[in-house]
Amino acid sequence: MTLDKQQINLLEKVEQNNIQPDAAYSDDLLSDLVFKEKYVHYTLSSNAMTGRYQIKQLYLTEKGKVELALALETQHQIDDSNRKIILFIGGLFLGLVLGKLVFHI
Length: 105
Known about the structure:
This protein has 105 residues and is an alpha+beta fold.
């Protein structure tokens, strides 16, 4: 599966433990990553008063770690490629401008 920016950001937050476990219920995208795609796993805690279980902690599964690493590497390669294209176009433009100045003088 190819991850988009939002999914990558969510997986990074889970990896860094910067996300509330309750978000697994309220955030549809995170819910999909937890319950459908199995990229994120969770631990449960029970409430003695109500007898209900709640998600206590979120963490990446091995599948989630691999997909996040691949997505970050792909994103890095795309960023490098875009940077090279911008530098090439900038160099062409600068060459044209300098060429016009040199030949007009």
